[in-house]
Amino acid sequence: MTDLTIDRRALEDLLDGRWAEARREAREHLRDPLYHPRPDLPTEEARARCLQQARALAKTRGPNLGFPKKYGGEGDVGGSVTAFETLAHGDLSLLVKSGVQWGLFGGAILHLGTEKHHEKYLRKMMSLELPGCFAMTETGHGSDVQSLRTTATYDPDSETFTIETPDEDARKDYIGNAARDGRMAVVFAQLITGGASHGVHAFMVPIRDEDGQPLSGIEIEDCGHKAGLNGVDNGRLWFHKVSVPRDALLDKHAQVAPDGTYFSPIENDTRRFFTMVGTLVQGRVSVSGAAVSATKSALAIAVRYAAVRRQFSPPGVSTEIALLDYRQHQRRLMPALAKTYALHFAQEALVVQLHDAFTRDDYPERDRRKLESMAAGIKTASTWHATRTIQMCREACGGAGYLSENRLVQMKADTDVFTTFEGDNTVLLQLVAKGLLTDYRDEFGSLDTLGMMKMAADMVIEQVLERTAGARQMIQSLIDAVPRSESETNLLDRGYHLELLEWRERHVLEGVARRIKKGIDSGREPFDVFNDAQDHVLLASQAHIDRIIFEAFVEAVDRSTHVDTRTLLDTVCDLYALTVIEENGRWFFEHGRMSPGRSKAITAEVNRLCSELRVHAEDLVDAFGIPDDVLGAPIALGAERARQEAKAPDEAETGVAGFAPPPP
Ligand SMILES: Cc1cc2nc3c(=O)[nH]c(=O)nc-3n(C[C@H](O)[C@H](O)[C@H](O)COP(=O)(O)OP(=O)(O)OC[C@H]3O[C@@H](n4cnc5c(N)ncnc54)[C@H](O)[C@@H]3O)c2cc1C
Questions:
Q1: Minimum CA distance residue for ligand 1 atom 33
Q2: pLDDT, tens digit, for every residue of 123-170?
Q3: From CA 380, how far away is CA 428, in angstroms rounded?
């Protein structure tokens, strides 16, 4: 490993991937000091600065890339998600504010509205002349959006809808852009016409006038200071008999005629609702990508610092040891780095799917639901990984990690909520399992239509797992070549890793399917059966997500053409695979798939891989391509190196890799 010649540029190019241009352009913009985070600002100043940043961003290509050419965009969905996720290397308040404006507000107009809405609003939304909100969540209902209680009641005489907040539970809550800047909101409400309710629909509702004052019937309250993201003005909204014209209904999936007749090509309310929210999947994909970017920034800071920060010296030696030469420090940073690589490639595969789904007319409906499931799954993995890794990086940098100038504390606070918004992770994991159990049927997304699992569970038991990665044949042939007995299998055999993760997924999923079928067959309520098996259900999703992330990594290694870079990535991929297997060692052991000897051998191999990769740790984080002035943290930019050099120039010149690590 030490004699590899790593072409950092080639590795960076591989990571930059298909939308490299959008990524590079976004990085260049972030170098402008206007975009550099200022965690010291009081809330109101932070909000004003965030709006100023968003206005500057509106003049760049990035936020508008995904919108139709007709309105000044480029129809490049993958490019727009890539540009967005790159923003997460900078000020995360700006990231979230622009996510609300172009992703949620703009995305709802584009995907739920029709041409009249596009013509009227898209250009103004794109230029930020019309700052908007996405008002879905209510105080009483966050995860269960189908049960929202705001109403939109149609009156054929005036041809208007009346938007009403019936009680305190139904007030809109946490809504980005609502407390200060939003002029209009896409409001999700129960549509009522002719006395009948047709479920949740979206409406364009003006909330402030040109001077920024709330309009008549609109009550607005500030959510106040938050743990992070204080540049974003989250607020609460009440609607008191607010009248909007019939055209305010975003009517791509359902229309109301002037006389109040309701029509939708999708008859079932639940199915219609999940078709509608399914078109908003880009938001979830974007948050996932942003989580990966923030994790990369944190690791770049912690790895660079660990390479130069020295503590303690071996007996009889005057030179202190770099943190990165300690086994435990490697154990903290290297598996997290390997998982970040894995998630990067899984995210890239997800963005390709998203791009295809929204740019190809012939994209199959079932694949659309698989995309939603994949987005939910990868979002949970990347956001949980972000929050854990950023905290670990903060600790790995000691006291320096706690200083605001080194960014980790703010990064942790700002990304924390990624596990909650755009779908709470625990709820999303249940949707992933439900997709697997029901073969992604029409009502994918709903947790309360569990009756259909009865039939579906039978199928799962016989079902062959579907591969999401492109290199299906390559992966299958690696699995087929694995020897049957554990003792004959090399720990670094890629087929062994693939087979083990696939076996776990199948075993857990079949177990859940049998359990649900048995419960339903015995006459119990499907909801109770599902609830009793909830931990098992979540494990099935986790096992599925682990496999698809790993396969995306294997496929990316296979794509790499530069020999040494490929060898390096292969080793990172080994470390990722063995870390996942080690973390689930108890499960494999309990299910007879791992002997105690093998379990110990895996731990020893993870240790060995961590030290083997140590020498390339800086190459691996440099390849993320984050410019120094965007990364910002002095400890990652040579401040510690300069201090060490001033202290003992001779020692510093000997190079960090020259020290033997202490015995394990
Ligand atoms: C900073 C911020 C910005 C936001 N911006 C917006 C915005 O712009 N627009 C908007 O509409 N919303 C926004 N939200 C709201 C966000 O989407 C919701 O907070 C989120 O959907 C979760 O809903 P909740 O807070 O009601 O939590 P709940 O749904 O009450 O969940 C609370 C806990 O219960 C658990 N739980 C819930 N259901 C189940 C179940 N079936 N099984 C097991 N466990 C369960 C969850 O895992 C979670 O841990 C924002 C929130 C925040 C904090």
A1: 424
A2: 999 999 999 999 999 999 999 999 999 999 999 999 999 999 999 999
A3: 7
